[in-house]
Protein 1
Amino acid sequence: MRNTDEINELLRPLSRVEPGRPDSHAAGTGARALLTSIRSEEPGGPARTITRTPAAKRPPRRLALGLVAASVLAAGIVVGPSLLEDGRGVAASYANSAMEIRREGDQYVARIKDPFAEHSAYTQAFHAVGLNVSLRPVPVSPGGVGKILGAIITGGKSSGPDPTTEPDPSGPRFDGVPLSMGTTPKDCQPGQDAGCVMVMRIPAAFTGQVDVRLGRQARPGEEYTNFDSAMAPGEMFDGVRLRNGRPVADVLAEARRRGLSATFSLVRVDAATGGLSFEPLPDGQVGPDWTVWNAWQVKAGVIRLLVTSERLPENPFYNGSAPPPAS
């Protein structure tokens, strides 16, 4: 086996990749420089020998460099994704423990294997293929899993035609950029069902920056980010009508029929601005004849009722947060 001095002698002419430096990941300049150094050795070039004794000869330098590259990989420095380029110097695929991403036609398709990973693991994968995408999974109810809750687009936009492989042309578009999410198999629960993967698609030609909030399955006891979707189809208060307000006793009975426990918040309306504020209330302070104006889903099995002690002239959630009553 080679000793340390001999390996150092082989590494000296190569570009270095130092672990922990910003450019040490697969898409960094350091890793690319190392790859360029290795590629620059032409087959059949002059052999270089290193001797420990006058008679001891070593393999040609290209083979030696191959051994050095293997040693670098064994040491934990990842250069593999940079080898899978698309002809423009950009990695066509990348994988880590959280997700894998690869170019498929005019899109990059990201498959999220671990929905509970730190968001930096997803961002690292997108950056490795040249996309400035920050993906932040947030806890949601089962109905919100795999859905884009919001995206902030800055800088450039997609410079090419819309992807021809877009699975849902009516899906979300943010500043003209088609982003789509789904699960494989369809409607499975990532983080719960074995083999369930979240899939995100983004145009390969996109040149700007995207900050995406993506719904993931909430852990037991974890509060939902999509708290204001309680009355949406498939959510815990699906079908409940509160636009005109309803008595607390009536809404509590509905919650119990659905196997839900309830908490309360007092709604205060600023007379000058119309702005709303909320004050948590103990159950014992809420009368059965108070009025419920809206409901938020807190976490699995828990609904929050937003109430006032008096009946207001109109629902303070005038922005349409509650669906209108059925005609």
Protein 2
Amino acid sequence: MNDSEIFLDSFFVARQPVFHTDWAIWGYELLFRNSEDSRFADIGDEDAATSQVIADGFGLIQEDIIEGQRLLVNFPRNMLLEEAAAGMLPPEVCVVEILEHVQPEPDVLEALKQLKKSGYTLALDDYVGQKGFEPFIELADIIKVECLGMGRDKLTQITNKLSKYDVTLLAEKVEDSDMFNFCKGLGFELFQGFFFSRPEIIPGKKMSTNNMNRMQLLKSVSGDNFDVDDLTRTINSDVSISYRLLRFMNSPTFGLPNTINSIQQAIVLLGYKKLAGWLRVILLSDMCSGPAGNELAFLSIKRAKFLELMAADNNCGFLSAESMFLLGLFSLLDVLMGRPMEELLAELPIEDELVKALTGEDGCASLWLDLVRAFEKADWTGLGTLIAENNLSALSIARNHLAAMQWANEVALLNKQE
């Protein structure tokens, strides 16, 4: 392994979606952190390390976005001055994000003007109405306003102040649908936060017949006991699932030497456990609709693969790799289905420790959900604490998360090609 590969393996990369008002995905913010050790100590030249991470991380993620989507990338002061984006990141995709601690000094403003001349879109991060940032606002194309913990009167005051500028407003750290709707009413066009990953339970809402069938099938592959003929009949009764499953089975991901021509053949050749794992992924993806649903499916599938990989590297107590996979896969089931988690899990034959973690109770399984949530929120401090307190390998976590992201993207691409 060369030095570049070692470096690539030792950084954390998180992506957070940015939505339009209609929930279509505008793009993603990429968040990076070097993970040389569990406490994230800086190594060598911080700016050189950041440049390497941004270049490599951007390249890895850029392959997975669709045409027209953008990627927000954070730039510290020195990298702005060195015009690190130029020649390294394409201006038609990369949005240069000015970090909140950067000050509008003359040399910084001149560097930003040069970036704009080169065709880059500029975004100002974490704006909360601070004085003296008018030179940044005049140059920026996007202003990110942090909503978490901010009162509605303050938000209204900030948006009124920004209304005289020709900028697009992005509401960040939007944590619930009420704040999403309030910000939309104020004129925000872009939204970032975890409002889309929280359940919205509507009393009296009924599950569609299609999703009821999916839940029944999901139940049939979530236990240990199965009958090949029964499972074959169940899958064959759903044309969409049958088609999608066979496409998965014959994809390069499986690497099977012979073409699979029937569901029964797939069950016999692959074995129930492997087939059931992939089928759960397909079922979950199929129950999702719309851009937000697709993003939730991606998160669920990525979590499942990440935890499965972590099980191979760590002593997870009595939790098997399959249990860890289920833990991640079902962790957003309540959001996807619009029903309480307790109600959904009562219909699935999964072990008690997973039920406890999925319903918010403390236990040995809850650590792993805390780990994936810290990653997705780019809570590097919290992630570092979890790593240190549980004697985990930062390198293992970084590698496995990156591998899980790539695997989830492959699954997502196969689904899009249906």
Protein 3
Amino acid sequence: MPTLPWTQPKRSASLRDEVVVMASRFQLGRWRDVIPFLLAALQIRRQMLRSPGVVGVSLIAKPFAKTFYTLSAWNDRDALDSAVAQQPHLDVMTRFRTRTKGSVFVFWPLGGTHLPPRWDDARSRLDEEARRATPRSRSR
């Protein structure tokens, strides 16, 4: 599946000088979860585009790698947190919590004139966060 490009809501949010960007990476453990997760991700994408304070969203699905990436921008962290606490996101998060391994999330501020955020920047930040979160074995 190709990248679902940066999409802004039909009703435009009042854009601020600085927005909050969130990127995530979900790695599924089992093949049988790929299609249900993809369908859930598309449902959540629709939800997010209707959520107050959303600036835009994008999704990369790599089903053959069992990996999904999201990228979104919000007027502020409160708007993002509020959307995540709503349905269907809340149910999907609960249902897939034990089916994902090594999920990674990053947040950063971005000037409103620099939208949309770049996927290469988001993936670099996700990779760095994954490295930081993975404990390294120490030689003795």
